């Protein structure tokens, strides 16, 4: 399955010459790593696929701490992407302290972040895309946008995704798929698709009235002398995970039978390579090749998993290219007699201090941000500890949000959705408006205040937990567990729905949650229409401004058992 | 804030039935035995076979109040051998019988689509009866969920 070799030579070289990077100065680390090193690749054949996904509207370089927990269940337990930290390093033979250890794990995170600097930035990605197009030839490269591109920042919220479309246009993607895009509403999505000038593909979106496809499902290209078909797949559970009322005429789903028909049709049209540009999530796309045949490569997004090379399932390669602009995924394919005979793949980490920004993209980013730049840079508070979001059960950013909702809305408990987007702040950094919006920018931000009975709270937790830990990945919606403020509990991911959540306890009093008693709960991102309450970003701006200095303690309110 | 009881109880429409069903007294929900008895009555006691009929339904309902389901039975649909009827059952609804489709050789194919309400996560069962006395069955579990937290 996985080759435990050193898949990136420079990774080992840097670590070997410097030793543990924690003690290395930033300048020294960066001198040893060059743009050419990052682009080094054992090219194959005449077709190159570049995969860029889940940037969540982050135009500028950022910190993004990988999770401490990312549990897998059933067939996926203990294998990538469900390996974190030391286990990940060991599995992929990555030396501790190396650049790859920094991009892929949270081991010694703060030290390594200070050593290697920020990742991403669309102007850096542009440099890589242009370099690879120049090296391979424009007629050999497909650049594909995996979606979750138009949501997640202050400027994307204020411009309804226009900032991202204007910037992405410069990179001339060959196709795109969507998920959070749909939360801009049906009309705005169609307007932006019209504007962007490249195909928006979805094999799995049908209108609710006539059950007919809403978008094109397949686009064909001639690349390196081969006919390539790209089929698109939107996030299958968008109407469940996000407000259906924002796109009421569109129905989603995995629809493997439709996909099989579209793959067969692409082959019948003469496609030598069939690529699925997918927003299914990594586990769904690991199961997919066992029920749909004939796909050569799945470029997968949604779950923000970053695995350093493609994995092979049957005859299908699956590459998961991370999130937030941290990586650019690359797959080269060699085709003979209409079949893929050889390949190579990698995730290129976008080290922002090593890669020269592309001037054209840098200027465009400045231009789209200009009207908002001063507001974006306004400082709200300072953090003494690390602020991050990713993790199956909690992250310090969500701990802060849960605490803010309890205090600002005078609630006993709070719920914060298990989103996987949002950046990281290192100890000592200022919290700016930009930073706050990386955690909260979205189109249904109202913070409700409601009473739920203890029994209802348990039902909600069980339901969300089953969306995360169902043994059948086709029932997993992506995202992490709903974050809970004011309450602790025990979770057994391997149990079935109804039996995973126990020992629900009010943290303040130490008393067990009473199924019959009502509790006042504040929460945000409800998928209901007409929810009333202040926007989460306004509530949190008030809260953290009032705090001035943020220091989130370690949170061990959730105990995980059986893993 | 003002929220109706329906909104307050659910994160999404799909959960309305789910949550309320768990709280209020009655109606009594059907179960696998009720459905099995209904299937027996429909098929006249013949042992149902799998494989010739395909029941399609979403893995997770986008809206529990209107879940699309479709059935297709492989059959020559001639005067000698055709599908007479297909019945659909929802194991967890207050009344498991959802619909019966009747066909004739003139139908050309035994295929039908409808939408149904599902009170909670449950099995949907389809049973087909042919003119030659054969009975086919297919089953799908459809999940009705709160959702609302996808990343």
Structural class of chain B: alpha+beta
Q: Taking Cα atoms only, what radius of gyration of chain B do you get, to the nearest Å?
A: 17 Å
Q: What is the rounded distance between the termini of chain A?
A: 23 Å
Strand content of chain B: 25-35%
If you consult CATH, what is the topology of chain B? Answer: Immunoglobulin-like
**Mean pLDDT figure of chain A:** 94
- Terminal residue distance of chain B: 26 Å
Chains forming the largest contact = A-B, 52 and 32 residues
Backbone shape of chain A = globular
Tell me the fraction of residues in β-strands of chain A, as a range.
15-25%
Q: Which parts of chain B are unreliable, with pLDDT below 50 for 5 consecutive residues or more?
A: 1-26
Strand order in the largest sheet of chain B: 4-3-6-7
Helix content of chain B: 10-25%
- In this structure, how is the largest beta sheet of chain B organized? 4 strands, antiparallel
How is the largest sheet of chain A built, in terms of strand order?
5-6-8-9-11-10
Description:
The complex is a heterodimer of chains A (563) and B (151). Chain A is of the alpha/beta class and 563 residues long. Helix content of chain A is 30%, strand content 20%. In chain A, strands 5-6-8-9-11-10 form a 6-stranded mixed beta sheet. Chain A has a 5-stranded mixed beta sheet with strand order 3-2-1-12-13, with helices on one face. A 4-stranded mixed beta sheet of chain A has the order 17-21-15-18. In chain A, helix 9 (162-170) runs antiparallel to helix 14 (359-369), helix 16 (396-408) packs across helix 19 (536-547) and helix 17 (433-440) crosses helix 19 (536-547). Chain B has 151 residues and is of the alpha+beta class. Chain B is 18% helix and 32% strand. Chain B is globular, with a radius of gyration of 17 Å. Chain B contains 3 helices and 7 strands, in the order H-H-H-E-E-E-E-E-E-E. Chain B has a single domain (28-144), classed as Immunoglobulin-like. Chain B has helices at 5-9, 14-23, 32-43; strands at 53-56, 67-73, 83-90, 97-102, 110-116, 122-130, 135-142. In chain B, the strands form 2 sheets. In chain B, strands 4-3-6-7 form a 4-stranded antiparallel beta sheet, covered by helices on one side. The chains are: A alpha/beta (563), B alpha+beta (151). At the A-B interface, helix 11, strand 17 and helix 18 of A face helix 1 and helix 2 of B.
């Amino acid at each position: 399955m996985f080759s435990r070799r050193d898949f990136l030579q420079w990774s080992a070289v840097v670590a070997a010459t410097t030793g543990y990077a924690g003690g290395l100065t930033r300048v020294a680390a960066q001198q040893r790593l060059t743009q050419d090193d990052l682009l080094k690749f054992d090219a194959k054949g005449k077709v190159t696929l570049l995969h860029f996904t889940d940037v969540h509207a982050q135009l500028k370089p950022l910190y993004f701490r990988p999770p401490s927990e990312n549990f897998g269940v059933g067939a996926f337990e203990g294998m990538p992407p469900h390996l974190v930290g030391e286990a990940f390093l060991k599995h992929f033979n990555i030396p501790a302290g190396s650049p790859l250890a920094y991009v892929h794990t949270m081991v010694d995170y703060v030290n390594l972040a200070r050593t290697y600097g920020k990742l991403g930035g669309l102007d850096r990605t542009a440099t890589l895309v242009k370099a690879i197009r120049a090296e391979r030839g424009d007629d050999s490269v497909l650049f594909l946008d995996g979606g979750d591109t138009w949501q997640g920042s202050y400027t994307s919220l204020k411009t309804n995704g226009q900032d991202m479309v204007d910037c992405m246009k410069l990179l001339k993607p060959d196709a795109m798929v969507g998920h959070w895009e749909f939360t801009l509403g049906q009309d705005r999505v169609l307007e932006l698709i019209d504007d962007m000038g490249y195909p928006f593909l979805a094999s799995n979106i049908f209108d609710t009235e006539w059950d007919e496809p809403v978008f094109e499902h397949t686009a064909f290209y001639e690349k390196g002398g081969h006919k390539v078909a790209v089929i698109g797949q939107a996030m299958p559970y968008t109407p469940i995970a996000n407000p259906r009322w924002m796109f009421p005429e569109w129905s989603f789903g995995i629809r493997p039978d439709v996909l099989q028909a579209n793959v067969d049709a692409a082959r019948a049209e003469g496609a030598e390579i069939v690529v699925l540009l997918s927003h299914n999530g990594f586990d769904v796309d690991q199961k997919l090749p066992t029920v749909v045949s004939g796909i050569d490569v799945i470029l997968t997004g949604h779950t923000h998993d970053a695995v350093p090379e493609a994995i092979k399932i049957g005859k299908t390669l699956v590459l998961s290219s991370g999130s937030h602009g941290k990586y650019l995924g690359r797959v080269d394919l060699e085709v003979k007699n209409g079949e893929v005979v050889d390949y190579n793949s990698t995730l290129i980490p976008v080290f922002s201090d090593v890669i020269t920004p592309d001037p054209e993209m840098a200027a465009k980013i400045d231009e789209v941000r200009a009207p908002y730049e001063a507001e974006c840079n306004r400082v709200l508070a300072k953090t003494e500890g690390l602020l991050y979001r990713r993790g199956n059960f909690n992250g310090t950013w969500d701990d802060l949000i849960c605490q803010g909702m309890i205090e600002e809305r005078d609630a006993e408990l709070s719920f914060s959705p298990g989103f996987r987007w949002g950046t990281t702040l290192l100890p000592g950094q200022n919290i700016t408006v930009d930073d706050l919006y990386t955690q909260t920018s979205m189109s249904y931000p109202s913070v409700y205040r409601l009473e739920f009975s203890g029994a209802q709270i348990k039902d909600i937790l069980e339901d969300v937990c089953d969306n995360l830990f169902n043994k059948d990945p086709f029932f997993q919606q992506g995202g992490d567990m709903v974050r809970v403020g004011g309450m602790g509990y025990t979770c057994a991911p391997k149990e079935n729905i109804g039996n995973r959540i126990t020992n629900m306890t009010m943290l303040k009093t130490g008393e067990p949650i009473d199924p019959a008693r009502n509790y006042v709960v504040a929460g945000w991102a409800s998928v209901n229409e007409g929810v009333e309450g202040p926007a989460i970003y306004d509530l949190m701006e008030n809260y953290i401004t009032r705090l001035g200095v943020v220091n989130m303690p370690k949170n061990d309110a959730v105990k995980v058992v059986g893993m | 804030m003002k929220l109706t009881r329906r909104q307050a109880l659910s994160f999404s429409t799909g959960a309305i039935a789910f949550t309320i069903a768990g709280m209020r007294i009655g109606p009594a929900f059907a179960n696998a035995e009720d459905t099995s008895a209904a299937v027996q009555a429909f098929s006249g006691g013949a042992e149902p076979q799998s494989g010739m009929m395909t029941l399609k339904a979403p893995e997770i309902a986008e809206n529990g109040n209107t879940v699309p389901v479709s059935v297709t039975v492989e059959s020559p649909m001639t005067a000698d051998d055709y599908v007479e009827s297909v019945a659909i059952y929802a194991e967890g609804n207050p009344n498991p019988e959802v619909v019966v489709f009747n066909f004739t050789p003139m139908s050309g194919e035994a295929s039908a689509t409808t939408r149904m309400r599902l009170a909670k996560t449950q099995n949907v069962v389809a049973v087909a009866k042919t003119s030659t006395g054969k009975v086919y069955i297919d089953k799908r579990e459809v999940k009705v969920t709160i959702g609302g937290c996808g990343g």
